[in-house]
Amino acid sequence: SIIKMVFLLSVHLLFGASFVSCLNMDSRTIARYSSALYQSNVDPMLSESFPLSFKHKFLQRTLLNTWVTVAAAGFAAISSVEAADVKGKLEYQPALKGLDYGKPRTYYPDYVQKPSGLQYKVVKEGTGETPKVGDRVAVDWEGYTIGYYGRPFQTRNKVKGGAFDSSETDFFRWVVGSGTAVAALDEAVQYMKEGGVMQVIVPAELGYPVGDTDHEIVGPKPATFSGQRALNFVLDNQNLIDKTLLINIRLTRVDSGFADKRKKQ
Fold first, then answer.
1. What's the gap between Cα 265 and its chain centre?
2. What is the pLDDT of residues 27-39, one digit of tens each?
3. d(CA 1, CA 75)
4. Strand pairing partners for 173?
5. Which of 53, 92, 140, 260 is most exposed, with the fewest beta carbons within 10 Å of its own?
6. What is the C-alpha radius of gyration for the chain, rounded to an integer number of angstroms?
């Protein structure tokens, strides 16, 4: 950033100005006077027992230690400002568009945070292949409007079963990088292995696009009318509603090079 560049330039110039007048001195002489300094415990800058050249070296080391401390403190302060800037991001709420206040974004400490805004947590590590752009993937999924009362818009659980125990599966399939899946899922599957389970936090900027109310262009599409209505109530609402979603996915299949194979046909 510009702040870092200015800070580094200032430190560089101060170091240069401080050391221009320093004199060369034999290493043995430096060691001898350093030992005398340690034993006498006096200020060498005020004592006549130490030559001018050693005083220059002593001053050089003192300045170096001082500026290292200043530099460390400066970088810590800059990093804190940048971290605060990232953490200060606000969730998208149409009613507050263009304003500098609103609901702060929630960052989950046990989730991996990516520069894009994606947050994910690996619930179960897979053992198969990791998808890449051009591969076709199939996922079983469930979704919740965690920014608005945590309402489910796609569920797989039975009353006595765990996640993804339903036999009424309707996998969502897409080619990675094709733009037919919400951006958060498109990125998240590239951090998975086949057979793995992941929880994905979907912020508005990585979620469903505006205008595709039937979710035919960009999926996944809820399997039921009630699920689609619950999702669209949040996505289409122009009031103070947080549009953040939670989508849990299980990567069931990876077809490597699917896009390239289709081009050759």
1. 39
2. 555 455 455 544 4
3. 12
4. 138
5. 260
6. 30
